[in-house]
Amino acid sequence: MQGPVAASPRPRRVFVLGATGTIGSATVRALVARGHEVVCLVRPRAGVGGRLGAQDSARLLPGAALRLGDAGDPASLSRDGFRGERFDALVSCLASRSGAPADAWAVDHRAHVHALRAAREAGAAQVVLLSALCVQKPRLAFQHAKLAFEQALIGSGVDYSIVRPTAFFKSLSGQVERVRQGKPFLLFGDGRLTACKPVSDDDLAAYLAGCLDDPQRRNRVLPIGGPGPAVTPREQGEELFRLLGRPPRFRRVPVALLDAIIGGLSAAGRVLPSAAAKAELARIGRYYATESMLLLDPGTGRYDAAATPETGRETLFDFYARLVRGDEALPQRGDHAVF
Question: Is residue 89 packed enough to be buried (19+ CB in 10 Å), middle (13-18) or exposed (0-12)?
């Protein structure tokens, strides 16, 4: 858990996008705790499935000023968000919900291009962008969309910090309930195909907020994970069973099954748009089932756990322990859930 937070040596006026997501809300808390004046543009119905009304968003983001609008609409972004006022920095935790091509290019790219333009017009000289480590090996639409905006930001002339985190705790908590119910933990292959250094919401939020003040993080692409060592899916399952006091039970899912599903949906997608969208979601699932969320060594083409930078103190297994004890509710994972 986070300890006392030092105030920023130079508090600024910060415009935040994506504030109602789990990382976004934690980042707003971190910015407010450091003494920044934070303004958030949120949708009238925000969160997964639009479950958050304006009052819910206000309770989620204490200490920040909320403005209702649509970050995907350039007119709303300027009229309802920036309002012709001056800002020092833009912090974006905004991301497409599904990763489907249309959603990805609309949110991960176009909405950010509009936000960058509006922020520059408002006087912002610094941008902190939450990206993703998986863009280092791009095969999916949302990865290409993120990379396209990263390049636009790098070439914009403003100071930037592009933060590429590894796996989030919430994305690795999908099997907690099924294991609690006595079901086996599902593994792709032998459960050792991939590894990651998961990072907690609060640790990542502190890192993002710290980018405003740390000159060493300026004008850089910053891969970041939580405290090591890297863990495999099998190790995640073993720890869950240990915490629940039960013998480990695993069920293997062959990667070839995912390939067959993707092939079938892709074929159907030639005539059914809904099947094409499902095929992309299946490709996303396969990517995360077979690619590690660690720094990629371009020379060897291999993932390098030792070279993957770390931040924070909380581990995934600390989080699992709180979930098992009932000290924390299971997070809503949205459209990127694999299980």
Answer: buried
Tokens, residue 92: 């974006």
For 162, which DSSP code?
E
What is the model's pTM? 0.93
Query: In terms of DSSP bridges, do strands 65-68 and 37-42 run parallel, antiparallel, or are they unpaired?
Result: parallel
pLDDT (average), residues 212-217:
97
Contact 258, 286 (CB under 8 A): yes
| Sheet of strand 89-92, all strands in order from the earlier edge strand to the far edge | 65-68, 37-42, 13-17, 89-92, 126-130, 159-165, 220-224
Beta-bridge partner residues of 17: 92
Contacts of 75 (CB under 8 A, 6+ apart): none
In the DSSP assignment, the letter for residue 39 is: E
* Long-range CB contact pairs, 84-88, < 8 A, 24+: 84/122, 85/122, 86/13, 86/122, 86/123, 87/13, 87/14, 87/15, 87/39, 87/119, 87/122, 87/123, 87/124, 88/12, 88/13, 88/14, 88/123, 88/124, 88/125, 88/126
The one-letter code for the residue type at 165 is P
Number of H helices and number of E strands within the chain? Answer: 12, 11
Alpha-carbon span 327 to 324, nearest angstrom: 8
**Tens digits of residue pLDDT in 132-174:** 999 999 999 999 999 999 999 999 999 999 999 999 999 999 9
Q: Kindly report, residue by residue over 76-120, the tens digit of the pLDDT.
A: 999 999 999 999 999 999 999 888 899 999 999 999 999 999 999
